[in-house]
Amino acid sequence: MKTTVLIKLATASIRKNKMRATLTMLGIIIGVAAVIVMVAVGYGARTRIRAQINNLGTNMIVITPGAAQTAGVSQGAQAFANLSLDDVDKIRRESQYVAAVSPVVVSRAQVIGPAGNWRSQINGVDVDYQTIRDWPTESGDFFSADDVNATRKVAVLGATVAANLFPDQDPVGQEVQIRNVPFRIAGVLSKKGQTATGTDSDDIVLMPYTTARATLSGRVFIPQILASTTNEQDIPAAQQELTELMRETHRLAGNDPNDFTVRNQNDLAQAAESSTRVMTLLLAAIASISLLVGGIGIMNIMLVSVTERTREIGIRLAIGARGSDVLTQFLVESIVMGVFGGLIGLIVGFSGAKILGHFTGWETVISPIVMIIAVGFSGAVGVFFGYYPARKAAALDPIQALRYE
Amino acid sequence: MGDAVIEVHGLTKTYSTGATEVHALRGIDLTIHRGELVAIMGSSGSGKSTLMNLLGCLDTPTSGTYELDGVRVDGLGKNELAAIRNQKLGFVFQGFNLLARTTAVENVELPLLYDRGGKKRDPRKLAVAALERVGLGQRLDHQPSELSGGQQQRVAIARALVTEPALVLADEPTGNLDTKTTIEVMALFQELNTQGITIVLVTHEPDVAAYATRVVEIRDGHIRRDEPVANRRKAAEDLLHVEEDAA
């Protein structure tokens, strides 16, 4: 029999049992829709995280102290207080790939303004920091290299800090007190929003690292060095080069392990994404179970259908249908149900993801690959769960089948 | 005898159910020629249904030879038998056995859809022609539930005719019909027979057998009687009497 005739026959017999077919397909519809919504939410979370990581800066490389081990016990990152200005100077002098580099001295302090006070993160950085983080000022200017060299008491406020200390006025040119030291405000940074981990990147005060060391901590230790390249292709080479330069300044012999970590934005993104990937997989796995249950529903109905249509099968066999004709007929029927259910599930899942995204504010991303896989898989479910009943139908003895009441 | 449609020699069929063996047929020799209308008679358990299944290629004999329209069919595989049923045989059953919720014309074209011969035919056109031949040209798109018993049986006969088979096998074709409809259906069979179609019908009613040209009686797996019908009745004439009685 021709394929078109087969599909026509299958859809005709499905149409004769509309209610039953709809209920059977419902299992597949719910399964496919669930998979699509879950994967869409998971993908959405991943794209959001990636966007946030990219928001950190352009072509950024982060150097942090390595994880030290004392007598085999890991002390965790930053156990080595071993990043120094020497490292920064060496990178600035000798690196070919790195276009901008800045130490980051981190502290927290109370910032007192004319209208109130605000506790915020204080970062002592170099002028290159602005380039690395790709962070323009909204009003005023970033502090200058001159300010850094002269250890001037100037500060640049993040948008959140500015909004809290200077509501309804421009803070540029005014003063704030940090640890009883007055700082002149050189500028206010534009808004950057949340980081991947959910903290507010605008809740920050930037000042020259020289000033920060002199007035705030007095410590020589630098928890982080940021660097960036001019273009993305240079990042791997720059990472390699930075590692070598750092090993030189740290006087590490050939086999000594690195006592620092050099990571780029991609590494950070991957670390953040790996958790959502696990989450997405888990959600998709749970949703797939409903697809499986839908498949069992198809099998159940096909078995009932074979029993119910025993006489029909007998007639078909008597007038010259082969076992394979009957097998194909029932198989096509369950595939049609599977694929049709998959397509409806696709539409339901697609709109479901959109509606969910609309009401929760979550970003949902529906990838075409997932759509193809979902429909293909539901067709495969039709084949897998339809084969046994179809086999049973094809194996019927025409004489017995014709006598069946 | 080049015009033999059925040639059967020493046909036996034994069913073994566990330890006991049932000899349904114990050696049948039968030749049926083209253009005959043969009634196979017998009580239940006589073996006539088994013979019908064997002649219809629905079952395979335990021993013996069976030649249908010049083709040896004993020993053929399942798929080959399916092809023989499709091309050489037309079935008419007691319970009509039409597909429910399927129109008359779709029922009739069904055997053509299973034909692998690769003949270029228009199933719809042939199905319509077959239905017109049995006088149902006006009922093409009616479903079985919308047709009377006699009309349903005529759809089944059209389905049996549509492939132009060498033989039409009818298994108790009038078993579910009242007297008048029985005579109508037999009139149709007689008419088709005069057009040259070979028909074998299984029945246990002597009244029905009286319309045949030859009666074969089976008892205990043997042929007990095989003779031409002496006073053959004309169903078309009987039909007139029935209508007169009714009026």
Notes on the structure:
The complex is a heterodimer of chains A (405) and B (247). Chain A is α+β, with helices and mostly antiparallel strands. Chain A contains 13 helices and twelve strands. Chain A has a six-stranded mixed beta barrel. A two-stranded antiparallel sheet of chain A has the order 2-3. In chain A, helix 9 (265-308) packs parallel to helix 12 and helix 11 runs antiparallel to helix 12. The mean pLDDT of chain A is 85. Chain B is α/β, with parallel strands linked by helices and 247 residues long. Chain B is built from eight helices and ten strands. Chain B has helices at residues 48-55, 78-88, 104-113, 123-133, 149-161, 179-194, 206-209, 235-246, and strands at 4-17, 20-33, 37-41, 63-68, 71-72, 89-92, 167-171, 199-203, 214-219, 222-228. In chain B, the strands form two sheets. In chain B, strands 6-7-8-3-9-10 form a six-stranded mixed β-sheet. A four-stranded antiparallel β-sheet of chain B has the order 2-1-4-5, covered by helices on one side. In chain B, strand 9 (214-219) and strand 10 (222-228) form a beta hairpin. Chain B is globular. The mean pLDDT of chain B is 90. Classes of the chains: A alpha+beta (405), B alpha/beta (247). The interface between A and B is medium-sized, with 21 and 26 residues.
Rg of Cα set of chain A: 33 Å
**Distance between the ends of chain B:** 48 Å
Order of helices and strands of chain B: EEEHEEHEHHHEHEHEEH
Q: What integer is the average pLDDT of chain B?
A: 90
Query: How many beta-strand segments of chain B?
Result: 10
| Class per helix and strand makeup of chain B | alpha/beta
Low-confidence stretches of chain B: none
**So what's the oligomer here?**
heterodimer
Into how many domains do the coordinates of chain B divide?
1
- Terminal CA distance of chain A reads 28 Å
**Which percent bin holds the helix content of chain B?**
25-40%
Number of strands of chain A: 12
CATH architecture of chain B: 3-Layer(aba) Sandwich
Main sheet summary of chain A: 6 strands, mixed, barrel
Shape of chain B: globular
